[in-house]
Amino acid sequence: MTDQQPVEHFHFRCKQEADTGHGGSDEEPTRTEDARVEPRRTENALAPGLYLVATPIGNLEDITLRALRVLRGADRIACEDTRQTRRLLDRYGITTPIISSHEHNEAERSRRLIEELRQGARIAVVSDAGTPGISDPGMILASAAIAAGIPVFPIPGPSAMLTALVASGLDTEPFIFRGFLPPKAGARRTALEELAASLRAPATLAFHEAPHRILETLSDAQAVWGPECRAVVARELTKIHEEFLRGTLRAIREVLAARESVRGEIVLLIAARPLSAEAASAGTSVSRRLTQLETSEGLREKDALRRIARERGLSRSELWRELQRERARGK
Ligand code: SAM
Fold first, then answer.
1. Which of 61, 77, 173, 244 has a CA positioned 20 to 30 A from the CA of residue 85?
2. Cβ–Cβ under 8 Å, residues 309 and 236
3. Model confidence at 10: pLDDT above 80
4. Mean pLDDT along residues 104-123
5. Is the pLDDT of residue 28 over 50?
6. Which helix (H) or strand (E) holds 327?
7. Whose CA is nearest to atom 11 of ligand 1?
8. Where are the domains of the chain?
Protein backbone atom coordinates (compact mmCIF):
# COMPACT_ATOMS: atom_id res chain seq x y z
CA MET A 1 0.00 0.00 0.00
CA THR A 2 1.27 3.48 -0.79
CA ASP A 3 -0.19 6.73 0.38
CA GLN A 4 -1.67 7.01 -3.12
CA GLN A 5 -4.06 4.15 -2.35
CA PRO A 6 -7.64 4.66 -1.22
CA VAL A 7 -8.03 6.02 2.27
CA GLU A 8 -10.81 3.49 3.01
CA HIS A 9 -8.40 0.64 2.68
CA PHE A 10 -6.04 2.16 5.18
CA HIS A 11 -8.93 2.80 7.56
CA PHE A 12 -9.84 -0.83 7.35
CA ARG A 13 -6.36 -1.92 8.37
CA CYS A 14 -6.32 0.43 11.33
CA LYS A 15 -9.80 -0.58 12.38
CA GLN A 16 -8.99 -4.23 12.17
CA GLU A 17 -6.22 -3.75 14.68
CA ALA A 18 -8.17 -1.44 16.94
CA ASP A 19 -11.63 -3.02 17.03
CA THR A 20 -10.81 -6.55 17.93
CA GLY A 21 -9.35 -5.44 21.23
CA HIS A 22 -6.90 -8.25 21.02
CA GLY A 23 -4.60 -6.90 18.38
CA GLY A 24 -6.70 -7.70 15.32
CA SER A 25 -5.24 -10.06 12.83
CA ASP A 26 -4.97 -13.72 13.71
CA GLU A 27 -3.09 -14.32 10.50
CA GLU A 28 0.19 -16.16 10.75
CA PRO A 29 2.90 -13.57 10.39
CA THR A 30 4.85 -14.05 7.19
CA ARG A 31 7.92 -16.14 7.91
CA THR A 32 11.11 -14.67 6.70
CA GLU A 33 14.39 -15.91 5.42
CA ASP A 34 16.14 -13.19 7.34
CA ALA A 35 17.19 -14.66 10.66
CA ARG A 36 16.97 -11.21 12.25
CA VAL A 37 13.17 -11.25 12.07
CA GLU A 38 11.71 -14.28 13.72
CA PRO A 39 8.07 -13.36 14.26
CA ARG A 40 7.11 -14.24 17.81
CA ARG A 41 3.93 -16.24 18.20
CA THR A 42 1.66 -15.00 20.89
CA GLU A 43 -1.98 -15.86 21.56
CA ASN A 44 -3.11 -12.40 20.55
CA ALA A 45 -0.98 -11.75 17.50
CA LEU A 46 -0.70 -8.16 16.34
CA ALA A 47 -1.27 -7.18 12.75
CA PRO A 48 2.04 -6.72 10.91
CA GLY A 49 3.18 -3.10 10.83
CA LEU A 50 4.92 -0.31 12.62
CA TYR A 51 3.60 0.69 16.06
CA LEU A 52 4.54 4.13 17.44
CA VAL A 53 4.11 3.59 21.16
CA ALA A 54 4.00 6.45 23.68
CA THR A 55 5.64 5.69 27.02
CA PRO A 56 5.70 7.48 30.42
CA ILE A 57 7.40 10.88 30.83
CA GLY A 58 8.16 10.20 34.49
CA ASN A 59 5.57 8.17 36.33
CA LEU A 60 5.83 4.59 35.08
CA GLU A 61 2.12 4.04 35.70
CA ASP A 62 1.34 6.36 32.79
CA ILE A 63 1.21 3.68 30.14
CA THR A 64 -1.89 2.36 28.44
CA LEU A 65 -3.09 -1.24 28.45
CA ARG A 66 -2.85 -1.19 24.68
CA ALA A 67 0.74 0.06 24.77
CA LEU A 68 1.68 -2.82 27.08
CA ARG A 69 -0.07 -5.35 24.83
CA VAL A 70 1.70 -4.01 21.75
CA LEU A 71 5.12 -3.98 23.47
CA ARG A 72 4.51 -7.56 24.59
CA GLY A 73 3.30 -8.77 21.20
CA ALA A 74 5.78 -7.04 18.90
CA ASP A 75 8.62 -8.96 17.28
CA ARG A 76 11.00 -6.31 18.46
CA ILE A 77 11.10 -2.88 20.00
CA ALA A 78 13.25 -0.13 18.47
CA CYS A 79 14.28 2.29 21.21
CA GLU A 80 16.66 5.19 21.85
CA ASP A 81 18.48 4.04 24.94
CA THR A 82 18.23 0.33 25.61
CA ARG A 83 18.88 0.75 29.36
CA GLN A 84 16.05 3.23 29.74
CA THR A 85 13.58 1.08 27.81
CA ARG A 86 14.71 -2.05 29.64
CA ARG A 87 13.72 -0.43 32.95
CA LEU A 88 10.19 0.13 31.66
CA LEU A 89 9.91 -3.35 30.18
CA ASP A 90 11.24 -4.98 33.36
CA ARG A 91 8.65 -3.14 35.40
CA TYR A 92 5.92 -4.82 33.32
CA GLY A 93 7.64 -8.18 32.81
CA ILE A 94 8.00 -7.69 29.05
CA THR A 95 10.77 -9.68 27.39
CA THR A 96 10.44 -8.56 23.75
CA PRO A 97 13.87 -8.13 22.10
CA ILE A 98 15.02 -4.52 21.83
CA ILE A 99 17.23 -2.80 19.29
CA SER A 100 18.65 0.71 19.53
CA SER A 101 17.57 3.36 17.04
CA HIS A 102 18.55 6.86 18.04
CA GLU A 103 19.01 10.17 16.27
CA HIS A 104 22.51 9.23 15.09
CA ASN A 105 21.58 5.95 13.42
CA GLU A 106 17.86 6.39 12.73
CA ALA A 107 18.26 6.69 8.94
CA GLU A 108 20.45 3.59 8.62
CA ARG A 109 18.38 1.60 11.16
CA SER A 110 15.20 2.59 9.39
CA ARG A 111 16.35 0.92 6.18
CA ARG A 112 16.89 -2.35 8.02
CA LEU A 113 13.63 -2.14 9.94
CA ILE A 114 11.69 -1.32 6.76
CA GLU A 115 13.10 -4.51 5.24
CA GLU A 116 11.85 -6.48 8.22
CA LEU A 117 8.47 -4.73 8.08
CA ARG A 118 8.15 -5.60 4.39
CA GLN A 119 8.52 -9.23 5.40
CA GLY A 120 5.64 -8.99 7.83
CA ALA A 121 7.30 -8.02 11.11
CA ARG A 122 5.48 -6.20 13.90
CA ILE A 123 7.85 -3.51 15.13
CA ALA A 124 7.19 -1.19 18.05
CA VAL A 125 9.04 2.11 18.31
CA VAL A 126 9.48 3.88 21.63
CA SER A 127 11.56 6.88 22.64
CA ASP A 128 13.13 7.42 26.05
CA ALA A 129 9.96 9.15 27.19
CA GLY A 130 6.69 10.36 25.73
CA THR A 131 5.57 10.13 22.14
CA PRO A 132 8.09 9.00 19.51
CA GLY A 133 8.70 11.56 16.78
CA ILE A 134 8.07 14.55 19.07
CA SER A 135 11.57 16.05 19.57
CA ASP A 136 12.60 12.39 19.43
CA PRO A 137 13.41 9.76 16.79
CA GLY A 138 10.50 8.05 15.07
CA MET A 139 9.58 10.44 12.29
CA ILE A 140 12.06 9.10 9.73
CA LEU A 141 10.95 5.52 10.29
CA ALA A 142 7.25 6.44 10.18
CA SER A 143 7.67 8.36 6.88
CA ALA A 144 9.70 5.54 5.36
CA ALA A 145 7.07 2.98 6.41
CA ILE A 146 4.26 5.08 4.92
CA ALA A 147 6.23 5.48 1.69
CA ALA A 148 6.74 1.71 1.58
CA GLY A 149 3.02 1.04 2.06
CA ILE A 150 3.47 -0.46 5.52
CA PRO A 151 0.65 0.13 8.03
CA VAL A 152 1.62 2.57 10.78
CA PHE A 153 -0.36 2.34 14.03
CA PRO A 154 -0.13 5.20 16.56
CA ILE A 155 -0.50 4.04 20.16
CA PRO A 156 -1.26 7.29 21.98
CA GLY A 157 -0.13 8.19 25.45
CA PRO A 158 1.98 10.75 27.32
CA SER A 159 3.44 13.82 25.69
CA ALA A 160 5.21 16.40 27.84
CA MET A 161 3.92 19.41 25.90
CA LEU A 162 0.25 18.35 26.05
CA THR A 163 0.55 17.39 29.71
CA ALA A 164 1.94 20.86 30.43
CA LEU A 165 -0.60 22.63 28.23
CA VAL A 166 -3.76 21.11 29.70
CA ALA A 167 -2.80 22.02 33.28
CA SER A 168 -1.29 25.40 32.42
CA GLY A 169 -4.48 27.43 32.54
CA LEU A 170 -3.48 29.06 29.23
CA ASP A 171 -5.59 28.83 26.08
CA THR A 172 -5.24 25.46 24.45
CA GLU A 173 -6.24 26.81 21.05
CA PRO A 174 -4.49 27.94 19.01
CA PHE A 175 -1.42 26.20 20.25
CA ILE A 176 1.95 26.21 18.50
CA PHE A 177 4.56 23.64 19.43
CA ARG A 178 8.09 24.70 18.52
CA GLY A 179 10.13 21.87 20.11
CA PHE A 180 13.59 22.92 21.33
CA LEU A 181 14.76 26.43 20.51
CA PRO A 182 18.29 26.75 19.11
CA PRO A 183 20.82 26.51 21.98
CA LYS A 184 22.95 29.46 20.79
CA ALA A 185 21.80 32.84 22.09
CA GLY A 186 21.67 34.69 18.75
CA ALA A 187 19.82 31.95 16.88
CA ARG A 188 17.38 31.46 19.76
CA ARG A 189 16.53 35.13 19.84
CA THR A 190 16.04 35.19 16.08
CA ALA A 191 13.75 32.15 16.30
CA LEU A 192 11.60 33.90 18.93
CA GLU A 193 11.49 37.11 16.90
CA GLU A 194 10.44 35.20 13.81
CA LEU A 195 7.73 33.41 15.75
CA ALA A 196 6.48 36.73 17.12
CA ALA A 197 6.47 38.28 13.66
CA SER A 198 4.52 35.34 12.23
CA LEU A 199 1.63 35.57 14.72
CA ARG A 200 -1.60 37.06 13.42
CA ALA A 201 -3.67 36.23 16.53
CA PRO A 202 -2.95 35.33 20.18
CA ALA A 203 -1.59 31.81 20.58
CA THR A 204 -0.04 29.66 23.27
CA LEU A 205 3.51 28.76 22.29
CA ALA A 206 5.11 25.61 23.69
CA PHE A 207 8.80 24.81 23.89
CA HIS A 208 10.92 22.03 25.28
CA GLU A 209 13.73 23.65 27.23
CA ALA A 210 16.83 22.51 29.08
CA PRO A 211 17.12 23.61 32.72
CA HIS A 212 20.49 25.31 32.19
CA ARG A 213 19.03 27.51 29.43
CA ILE A 214 15.64 28.42 30.88
CA LEU A 215 16.74 31.74 32.43
CA GLU A 216 18.27 32.96 29.18
CA THR A 217 15.21 31.87 27.22
CA LEU A 218 12.90 33.68 29.64
CA SER A 219 15.03 36.84 29.20
CA ASP A 220 14.83 36.52 25.42
CA ALA A 221 11.07 35.99 25.58
CA GLN A 222 10.74 39.10 27.78
CA ALA A 223 12.71 41.11 25.27
CA VAL A 224 10.31 40.00 22.54
CA TRP A 225 6.89 39.97 24.28
CA GLY A 226 7.59 42.17 27.30
CA PRO A 227 7.97 41.23 30.97
CA GLU A 228 4.22 41.21 31.67
CA CYS A 229 3.44 38.52 29.10
CA ARG A 230 1.83 35.49 30.80
CA ALA A 231 3.71 32.22 30.80
CA VAL A 232 3.99 28.86 32.52
CA VAL A 233 7.03 26.77 33.34
CA ALA A 234 6.02 23.12 33.84
CA ARG A 235 8.82 21.19 35.47
CA GLU A 236 9.26 17.49 36.25
CA LEU A 237 5.78 16.56 35.07
CA THR A 238 4.28 13.43 36.60
CA LYS A 239 7.33 13.04 38.87
CA ILE A 240 7.65 13.55 42.62
CA HIS A 241 8.81 17.15 42.27
CA GLU A 242 6.27 18.18 39.65
CA GLU A 243 5.92 21.95 39.61
CA PHE A 244 3.93 24.56 37.70
CA LEU A 245 5.13 28.17 37.82
CA ARG A 246 2.32 30.33 36.45
CA GLY A 247 2.66 34.09 36.13
CA THR A 248 4.38 36.71 34.02
CA LEU A 249 7.67 36.06 32.24
CA ARG A 250 9.33 38.47 34.65
CA ALA A 251 7.87 36.87 37.82
CA ILE A 252 8.70 33.32 36.72
CA ARG A 253 12.21 34.33 35.82
CA GLU A 254 12.70 35.99 39.20
CA VAL A 255 11.53 32.87 41.04
CA LEU A 256 13.86 30.60 39.08
CA ALA A 257 16.81 33.03 39.23
CA ALA A 258 16.54 33.10 43.02
CA ARG A 259 17.19 29.34 43.19
CA GLU A 260 20.63 27.91 43.64
CA SER A 261 20.15 25.99 40.40
CA VAL A 262 17.33 25.00 38.12
CA ARG A 263 17.03 21.29 37.56
CA GLY A 264 14.76 18.82 35.88
CA GLU A 265 12.87 18.62 32.63
CA ILE A 266 10.95 21.68 31.51
CA VAL A 267 8.17 22.69 29.16
CA LEU A 268 7.83 26.44 28.67
CA LEU A 269 4.49 27.88 27.58
CA ILE A 270 4.02 31.50 26.55
CA ALA A 271 0.66 33.26 26.06
CA ALA A 272 1.94 35.14 23.02
CA ARG A 273 0.16 37.98 21.28
CA PRO A 274 0.88 39.45 17.88
CA LEU A 275 3.06 42.48 18.40
CA SER A 276 1.69 45.95 17.74
CA ALA A 277 3.92 48.02 15.49
CA GLU A 278 5.24 49.96 18.48
CA ALA A 279 5.71 46.90 20.65
CA ALA A 280 7.36 45.12 17.77
CA SER A 281 9.99 47.79 17.43
CA ALA A 282 10.36 48.16 21.18
CA GLY A 283 10.33 44.39 21.57
CA THR A 284 12.77 43.43 18.91
CA SER A 285 15.35 46.15 19.12
CA VAL A 286 16.85 47.92 22.11
CA SER A 287 18.73 50.33 19.91
CA ARG A 288 15.57 51.45 18.11
CA ARG A 289 13.79 52.02 21.41
CA LEU A 290 16.86 53.88 22.65
CA THR A 291 16.79 56.24 19.67
CA GLN A 292 13.06 56.67 20.14
CA LEU A 293 13.45 57.74 23.79
CA GLU A 294 16.43 59.97 23.05
CA THR A 295 14.74 61.79 20.19
CA SER A 296 11.07 61.88 21.15
CA GLU A 297 11.47 62.25 24.92
CA GLY A 298 14.90 63.86 25.00
CA LEU A 299 16.29 61.32 27.50
CA ARG A 300 20.02 60.92 27.99
CA GLU A 301 21.36 57.51 26.95
CA LYS A 302 21.88 56.47 30.57
CA ASP A 303 18.30 57.33 31.53
CA ALA A 304 16.85 55.82 28.40
CA LEU A 305 18.67 52.54 29.09
CA ARG A 306 17.41 52.54 32.66
CA ARG A 307 13.84 53.00 31.37
CA ILE A 308 14.19 50.23 28.77
CA ALA A 309 15.64 47.84 31.36
CA ARG A 310 12.59 48.52 33.56
CA GLU A 311 10.18 48.06 30.63
CA ARG A 312 11.69 44.70 29.78
CA GLY A 313 12.28 43.38 33.27
CA LEU A 314 16.02 43.09 32.64
CA SER A 315 18.93 44.22 34.78
CA ARG A 316 21.04 47.02 33.28
CA SER A 317 23.92 44.65 32.62
CA GLU A 318 21.57 42.22 30.85
CA LEU A 319 20.20 45.06 28.75
CA TRP A 320 23.70 46.24 27.94
CA ARG A 321 24.65 42.73 26.78
CA GLU A 322 21.47 42.70 24.69
CA LEU A 323 22.44 45.97 23.06
CA GLN A 324 25.92 44.64 22.29
CA ARG A 325 24.37 41.50 20.75
CA GLU A 326 22.13 43.62 18.56
CA ARG A 327 25.02 45.80 17.47
CA ALA A 328 27.07 42.72 16.63
CA ARG A 329 24.15 41.48 14.51
CA GLY A 330 23.97 44.87 12.79
CA LYS A 331 20.48 45.82 14.09
N1 SAM B 1 8.92 12.78 23.00
C2 SAM B 1 8.80 13.46 24.27
C3 SAM B 1 7.34 13.79 24.52
O4 SAM B 1 6.49 13.39 23.72
O5 SAM B 1 7.05 14.38 25.53
C6 SAM B 1 9.72 14.65 24.32
C7 SAM B 1 11.16 14.27 24.26
S8 SAM B 1 12.29 15.59 24.28
C9 SAM B 1 13.77 14.78 23.80
C10 SAM B 1 12.62 15.81 25.97
C11 SAM B 1 12.07 17.14 26.47
O12 SAM B 1 10.68 16.98 26.73
C13 SAM B 1 12.67 17.57 27.77
O14 SAM B 1 13.87 18.28 27.57
C15 SAM B 1 11.59 18.47 28.30
O16 SAM B 1 11.61 19.72 27.67
C17 SAM B 1 10.34 17.71 27.88
N18 SAM B 1 9.95 16.74 28.92
C19 SAM B 1 10.05 15.41 28.89
N20 SAM B 1 9.61 14.87 30.03
C21 SAM B 1 9.22 15.90 30.82
C22 SAM B 1 8.70 16.00 32.11
N23 SAM B 1 8.48 14.93 32.86
N24 SAM B 1 8.43 17.24 32.61
C25 SAM B 1 8.64 18.33 31.87
N26 SAM B 1 9.13 18.29 30.62
C27 SAM B 1 9.43 17.10 30.10
1. 244
2. no
3. no
4. 92
5. no
6. helix 316-328
7. 208
8. 30-157, 162-284
For atom 2 of ligand 1, the residue with the nearest CA is: 130
- CA of 181 from ligand 1 middle (Å) equals 13
Ligand 1 binding pocket (C-beta < 6 A) is: 57-58, 127, 129-131, 134-136, 159-160, 208-210, 234-239, 265-267
Domain 162-284 falls under CATH 1.20.1310.10: no
- Give one word for 264, left, alpha or beta, with left for phi > 0 and alpha for psi -120 to 50: left
Which strands form 230-235's sheet, in the order they lie side by side?
175-180, 203-209, 266-272, 230-235, 243-248
C-alpha distance from residue 227 to each of 67, 202, 220, 291, 325 (Å): 42, 16, 10, 21, 19
pLDDT at 14 over 80: no
User: What's this model's pTM, rounded to 2 decimal places?
Assistant: 0.78
What pLDDT band is residue 208 in, cutting at 50, 70 and 90? very high
What would the pLDDT profile of 250-284 be if each residue is shown by its tens digit?
Answer: 999 999 999 999 999 999 999 999 876 545 555 55
Give φ, ψ of 119 to 5 degrees.
-90, 10
pLDDT of residue 279: 54
> Alpha helix locations (H) across 44-102?
65-73, 82-91
Nearest to 282 by CA among 291, 269, 272, 270: 291
Distance from residue 282's CA to the centre of ligand 1 (Å) = 33
